[in-house]
Amino acid sequence: MDALDHLNEVLPKISERKFILFIGAGISKISGCADWDGMVNSMAADLGETISFERISHNEWLQHFKLAYEKNGNGNKFWQIVREGIIPNPKQLSESYIPLAKILQQIRPQPPILTTNIDNCLEMTRLFSADVYRRLSEFTQANLNTGGIFHIHGSIEDLENALITTSQYQQHYETPEMRTFLDAVFNNEHSVLFLGYGLKDAELKMKIRNNRRQGAHYALVPAEDNFRPEEIATFKDVHGVNIIVYGNRSSLKQSLEGWISKVFAVSTLEENEKNMCGEQ
Predict the structure, then answer these.
(1) What gap in Å lies between CA 27 and CA 247, rounded to an integer?
(2) Which pTM does this prediction carry?
(3) 261: Cβ–Cβ under 8 A, 6 or more apart, which residues?
(4) Label partner for 38 (CA 20 to 30 A): which of 52, 77, 126, 279?
């Protein structure tokens, strides 16, 4: 049994349109976009500072450097580094990211996609829904039911209002609109599959926990993330998230392709057979 065969449990949810993809920074990194740690390191080098992530998160460092650049009268440099960091490498986008996106596109019916990424790599593939939601007012149950791409931390289209710092995160997740939207996402009717997402955001973890149903959600993680057995058990028991270690980070495309092509090839075959029977 392959590790991803555990995802067969969400197939009824996919058919019922109660399935959601949640895309994190690990997926954008495949396109050549920098992660937040990389951007923080670039800012530290630019300002001649020595940093460590042992006790301070990248969001806290971003808040620190944003203030530092503004104090120096060079706030535009902060946004320049962020913007450059979230622009994909054309070669990696074409050769690595788009092939992975084409695999995800085979999931039918196509689920809504939530992402914390502020780049527009998903839109650049032109493989998914043309409905793209970037504003808090657009994060509604009605739009979730319709489907599309939801940039829940904002996007490059309105970069200076995107969520970057810890204080922004906290304020955003406490808004009535966001609380209601995430209640709808993580309620008992939906199953969510996390891809490229480290499950580190305290606000999101609390929301998942408050709407917990054991075994409802899944997260594909690489072996390099070194999840300990007790951590895996805690995510399942406390948050209702099944951690699936699929192998080395570089094997994500191969692992997803194996499961999706097997499952949805069968679904397509069965649908074709039903159509043929109906014509007779």
Answers:
(1) 15
(2) 0.89
(3) 103, 106
(4) 126
